């Protein structure tokens, strides 16, 4: 039974179960912390209480960010909290702290959501930035993903008919009241024929498109302004069908953390001969982590699940012949 009182420190150094010891060796920090919390069976509010007993003040929200990979501790008081966490979770000394030092020993990274420039994630970056400027929207919209479930529908003519998104996001700054969806159609996409539909807990705002690149950006407006740390659940859909044959669907992530699920469904009249998942660190980088996927289910589809996304690109590609 977990208790919030402590006796004298044991003379032996703390040890970790094999599965936890492996994560402590390999990292990353957020996964090691989350695994340690699960192994010890401690809720975040109890961890916060035990830290407070040691004179260390840290919010439950910060602890949650750390275990999700949405933020990494860097400030002196945060690093002191990590050292105390090692005691609370009965971990070897410096086992968490050392995971915060990148290669080269330059010291812990800054305490903010780990991010990658959106320009590195999309091939039509200039169009995207111009359209975002028309909406007076910064590239960093102030939100990062907690959970994102996306379904893509491929029609009988091998075209992308549309997609549906259900998202849970968390604000990493105050005053966020919208999400900007970015849709890049297949070659031949006509942005004037693309329809953006708000489905749950949002409404459609301004929509802009670029005919040359086939990019559409659309505001999805919330009915509240989020404060830092607050979450919002919403859903939306995009109808397309204007482009040529589709051969892949990719999603770029500027921030680390959160779960992503992608389903691709094919019309029975047009089934691909093979499908595969892949990952990229940027739009021009080689594709890695490739894995063959098998069509299954009544809707003849494939899917991928990424429990904790990293900044970069995830996608599913397919071959018609």
CATH architecture of the largest domain: Sandwich
Which spans have pLDDT < 50 for at least 5 consecutive residues? 1-13, 102-120
Radius of gyration: 22 Å
User: CATH class of the largest domain, anyone?
Assistant: Mainly Beta
Strand order of the largest sheet: 4-7-2-1-9-12
Quick description:
The protein has 321 residues and is of the alpha+beta class. It has helices at residues 18-26, 29-40, 44-53, 60-68, 76-88, 125-134; strands at residues 143-154, 160-171, 176-184, 195-200, 203-210, 215-226, 231-239, 248-253, 259-266, 274-280, 288-293, 301-306, 312-319. The protein starts with 17 loop residues before the first helix and ends with a strand.
Structure description:
- The protein contains 6 helices and 13 strands.
- The model is unreliable at 1-13 and 102-120 (pLDDT under 50).
- It folds into 2 domains: 18-100, 434 Repressor (Amino-terminal Domain) (Orthogonal Bundle); 118-319, Immunoglobulin-like.
- The chain is α+β, with helices and mostly antiparallel strands and 321 residues long.
